[in-house]
Design goal:
198 residues, mainly alpha, Rna Polymerase Sigma Factor, Chain: A, Arc Repressor Mutant, subunit A, 2 domains, 9 helices
């Protein structure tokens, strides 16, 4: 790939940090903390350890300082780290050892989200809360589909970049996002029918 990522502020800061500029690391933290927190919130729901996970991402940035190479946009590289951390978080306490195992598992949505504040779909539907219903539906998607949809929908990330984050191909991501949207539509169907009822 002949891309030159030097125009990307994050890449410039990371290269400056690599050369010993500690303030460049501070700029990275200031600039990307909010985005990472939002990403973890959308992926995991209101889990109490989201701030810890954001810190984990920056710890990995520190560890990658020596060997970092700008082969993608900085945010793409950062989101790939965040996805690995998020998947590890959802697998804790299960016997799924490898990151690639179960990337598309259709296991019960509630098994991987331990936060009590995420409600069962029926409670949400009875309350008629659209935002909560969408959150519950997204939480129920397989992990890779969930991340692909979040990056496409909320971060407006192009499929080619989502492919880098999820170590996949652009074509596969396109169909994954399509499947995720279809899944969401199915999960939200009872809710939407209820909305239209007289």
């Amino acid at each position: 790939m002949g891309h030159n990522y030097e125009s990307d502020a994050g890449v410039r800061w990371m290269l400056a940090y690599q050369k010993g500029d500690e303030r460049a690391f501070d700029r990275i933290v200031e600039t990307y903390s909010g985005q990472l927190f939002a990403l973890f919130t959308r992926f995991l729901g209101p889990a109490p350890e989201r701030e810890d996970l954001v810190q984990d991402v920056f710890l990995r940035v520190i560890r990658a300082r020596e060997r970092y190479q700008p082969t993608a946009r900085f945010s793409t590289w950062l989101y790939r780290i965040a996805f690995n951390i998020a998947v590890n978080r959802t697998q804790r306490g299960t016997d799924e050892a490898s990151l690639d195992d179960g990337l598309d598992d259709e296991g019960p949505a509630w098994a991987e989200i331990s936060d009590e504040r995420i409600e069962a779909p029926t409670d949400v539907l009875e309350r008629g809360d659209v935002v909560a219903a969408v959150r519950v539906a997204i939480a129920g998607l397989p992990k890779a589909q969930r991340m692909a949809l979040i990056l496409a929908k909320y971060d407006e990330m192009p499929y080619a970049e989502i492919a880098v984050v999820l170590r996949s191909s652009e074509k596969a991501i396109k169909s994954m996002v399509h499947r995720a949207r279809e899944n969401l539509r199915e999960r939200l169907a009872p809710f939407l029918q209820q909305e239209e009822a007289p």
